Task: structure prediction
Amino acid sequence: MGSLLLSSLFLLTFLLGRIRQLGSSRLSRFIPSMVFFRVSIAAALLSRGLAAAGLEGDVVNWIAVVAKTGLYVAFVELALDVIWALVVRLSPRGMAPPRILKDLALVAAALVVVAAELNSQGLLTTVGSAAVLGGLAFIVGPGSATQISNISAALAVQVERQYEVGDWVEIAGELGRVDNISWNSTYLYDDIDDRYVIVPNSLIDHTKTINYSRPSSSHYRLEVEVGIPLDMPPGHAIQVLRSVLTSHGEVINKRRNAVVIRSIDHDSVNYVLKFFVADFAARNKIRTEIFSSVWYAIERAGYSLPHTMVDLRTEQSRRQSQIKRKVEDQERSFNALRMIELFSSLSDDEITSIVCNDRLVGFGPGEMVVKKGEVGGSMFVIMEGSCSVLIADPSDEVAMMEVAQLQSGTIFGEISALTDAPRTASIKAIGHVLLQEISQRQIEAVFLNNQTAMAAFAKAMAAREAGLKNITVEEKKTFEMGLVERMTQTFSKLMNS
Result:
């Protein structure tokens, strides 16, 4: 019966150990590691088995001592866990003592308990002393100098609070989140490659450690270096790069954004974009989006990122190729506008004038094309890709919610462009998006001397508005007349500016 009870208790230690590991209960912090309980129970079962077999002698006695000593040490560990939990709870925030002190206290207490038990059994002789010293040697392990160096480094790390579990650190060129700090090593989880990196604590004394979670774990500094063509004025380049940082949704503390020149090469000026994010784990995703947005922003500004290549074409053939590509783009834009009902009142020459004098602009994934509240000077037609229509989330003052998606061939931003009214929603690129921009100036050039076309345009827009909002015939007529009036005022203002 006793053996059955001991076996049940042995199995119970594994269950309690699992509960401690998962931390699923408030009481889990008070559950010891169960190692010493298992040693004690295993030794007791072995002692009973040897006794049942009729074996006696020093070996059996020593096993009994191990069972009793293991039980004492287990209760000491339990007491230390309770005391430690209370100390951590009562300590000021961020001032809890390092956990390694508890581990060292357990080692010291265990050695005292072992020595006391051996002495009470009259076994603290040369053999007993050797056993205690052997236990200490086992703890220190082979290569005692290295082991001691690891322990002292771990103690220094935790006492000085160089980093803690959960911090993002870079040690000896290895970047990861601190998962555990043991006597020997610091365990880093590399989220990019999904692996653990084990760094010996002794290495910390001889290498540079960067803690990205200090002084604050609420924001992290990232950097992106890009090369900008030499012919782009630095003032313009810095303005464009700052706008990229300002418009990115995951960049925080935008007032602390910085764009600085790092160096100048034979074909580029190298700028560094410095910014803060809230989620360090998303750093690669955000860096990729920043690079992408910089490429599109530079292209929209009329420049190309520098690249080293050998072009065997003549200047004439290169110019001809550019002209051919531009003509093809204009033909594509013309065909797209011709198919849109709003432009049905315009002649081929008027549409040609628009596509020849305005430009195709590209936006990368996640870039804001227009922002709610802005006064827009252009409308857009989606040539490639799709966009998301965003408005303020009623449940969150900061967040935006998607209310619709715009596909290829859709026109947006026309009300703001035609009437100087603020944008009623934000438009964000879902993936790569190519847009035909139609500026106020081109609209003015078409409509100013073509009142018939203006009235037809307003009528088509009123019809679309009626379909979207299910307004009455009278409301539709009022909208149409008001739109013509506002368009006339806008174009008159443009003409006089």
About this structure: The first helix runs from residue 2 to 22. Residues 138-144 have pLDDT under 50 and may be disordered. The CA atoms of residues 75 and 466 lie 79 Å apart.
